[in-house]
Amino acid sequence: MVYRTFGWVQNPSDFKKLKKTVQVFDPSSDHYRQLRNHIVNEVIYFAEDKNHFQDQLDNCVCEFSYKDLVGSNINKDGRSPKKRSESVANSLLQVSILPQSTKTKGKLYTDNWTADGFLRWAVSLNFVSHNRDTDTFKITDFGKKFSSSEDNSLEERTILREAMLSYPPASRVMSLLAGAKEPMTKFAIGSQLGFVGEKGFTSYDEDLMIEWLKNAIDTKEITKIRSDVEGTSDKYARMICSWLAKLKYVTKKSTKYTNVAGNQITGFQKYALTGEGLHAIKQANGSSKNRTHPKFVMWEFFATENARDDEQSREYVRTRRAYTLKGLEHHHTIGSLLESLKDHGIFEEKETLLADLHKLVSFGLRITINKNTVRLLDTINDFSIPNQTFTLAEADVTSEKIKNHFRRVTELPERYLELLDIAFDPKRNRDFEMVTAGLFKDVYGLESVHLGGANKPDGVVYNDNFGIILDTKAYENGYGKHISQIDEMVRYIDDNRLRDTTRNPNKWWENFDADIPSDQFYYLWVSGKFLPNFAEQLKQTNYRSHANGGGLEVQQLLLGADAVKRRKLDVNTIPNYMKNEVITLVSEA
Questions:
Q1: How far apart are CA 104 and CA 71, in angstroms?
Q2: Which of 458, 495, 529, 562 is flagged as catalytic?
């Protein structure tokens, strides 16, 4: 049995190519006939593949394996190519989805990564179904309607609109826009979309991103921030909005900002519902179940990646959420839902269930949670769950217990509990920087600016009374002493003290409030865990710079944020903790 991920699509956006993808499974379509009559023979490279596909098409086969559809990234010698341009066509979708370079370079096939994306999109919109037992795909009845519709017709648009209203993440985006008082950026949408607080669903703070863009001077940096820097949920939001815009459900609005140089620059796009979009989502979210638009879901929709990249853990989370959703058909209290999960061998704490329910809401299902009462307002299709027992990896069991502890003892938004995982993942340095900066701004109530780039710290945090030079370090097993990073921090401290543009022309220190007293600047490292030899790093930094600072582990960062939120910790006392040691803001709860 093969378990794949569906429901979340980041890159495909061309409905014409989506239609070609679906028509690969429809022997009555013109594209299928073209594949059979000349495309396979002319474009597929290896004779063995060519003969295999030709035989299938000649016999009007309409169910294909993942390998036949997506293929692989190989060159003429059957090996992994050094450059993607050296790859050859070896699948049905590769030769169906033509790249942009077709017109300029005459290339008649795409890569296997793009082919996978379009297949995933077609499955997610219920145009194509997947058989886990055989890892094969075939067209659905809904897909046949789409395949046979006339291009650019009212019928085609009606089918695509119906698909979007049935696709929970798209209906979630439309509902968020419907409830917004003004147009929203991808960051504002992304922060409320998907399984918030998990790997694969990170969103960057809107205000931080706008300030970062305003502070960028170099044209390349401006372009990169505007186009390439975004959380995964922000990317989903942007992509879904682009689909909805093509269907006239959403409008895009350009924005302008004045940057630090006083120049007008193009900002982040904002999205709003059209009149048609508002009417459609109101109808889809009817006042009774009989009037609501049914939602299409699959077991494969309910997770992308787990914290530790363990497939068993991912499948366990999918199964837990799937049985939770099915349980909502008959159970309407937290207690009865927990009992129903036990019937399927799933024993979880109340906090995990509540987190799942809230995440199913941000995924796109309408669920009301009122104290102990829970109700599903949507109708959903009947979907299958693998008849297999999955278990959480030990590391994920530990991670979930820690998160549940924080869910019980703090009032922090779920998206910040992700720091408990990010802080130990070296591959997610930017996520760590952005989410940490967001926490300082959103919960601590401090001014927070993400900087990054050459000769700049990760960020600065400040108010009228003090300023902090911030550096985040994500290390899997903890952060210890690093001489080069002592040198780096001392240089930042001296940059701020001297403010010499000859020494450092980027003037990053101008992000601090100009009225902060000169003796009220501090340095701070934030990490998941500090190793014993980190104490020497703090000692040497203080000795060389004559500045005070410290190290803050992520659990203390979160507990401190909660204490500020509850007004049990005054942010203006934070300088009192800067004693060149690992900081304890709050006694462990």
A1: 24
A2: 458
